[in-house]
Design goal:
By secondary structure, the chain is of the alpha+beta class. About 50% of the residues lie in helices and about 30% in strands. It is globular, with a radius of gyration of 20 Å.
Length: about 140
């Protein structure tokens, strides 16, 4: 078998691997940014259902249990997370997106939001988060 023919046999295999890798890439930085933008738009509009739909299921459940109210009510409660999230919604312009594998951190002018990849999208795992030096962030809503 000559060298030219061997190269031609590998070309379809390489093309298939590249196509498969592209298909497995999952959601990107823009998708993470979009989820955070939609989350804060829902909070600003008072649409707790839409905002809760963007949370990791565990985060929504933890919030509801902690606040003793359904997620949409608990999330928007001004005496609870809604007070902080409502204030931060106005300045939730995305400054940076940092991604590592299936995790992402979106930094806005007013918040640091944590996300995890879920299927072909991102879900919010922590929002209303403040840095605490060397310790983990303190988040209003987290899973």
């Amino acid at each position: 078998m000559n060298t030219r023919r061997r190269r031609n046999l590998w070309a379809p295999a390489v093309a298939a691997l590249v196509a498969a890798a592209a298909g497995c890439a999952g959601p990107g930085d823009g998708d993470a940014q979009d989820v955070v933008t939609r989350f804060y738009a829902a909070v600003a509009a008072g649409d707790g259902d839409a905002a809760c739909a963007l949370l990791l299921t565990g985060a929504a459940e933890d919030l509801a249990e902690e606040e003793q109210a359904p997620c949409p009510e608990a999330l928007l409660d001004p005496a609870g997370p809604g007070g902080v999230l409502g204030e931060r919604a106005a300045a939730a312009t995305v400054d940076a997106v940092h991604r590592a594998g299936s995790q992402a951190q979106v930094v806005t002018a007013s918040d640091t939001v944590f996300l995890a990849r879920s299927g072909d999208t991102w879900v919010v795992t922590g929002v209303g988060c403040d840095p605490r030096g060397e310790r983990p962030y303190d988040c209003e809503v987290e899973s």
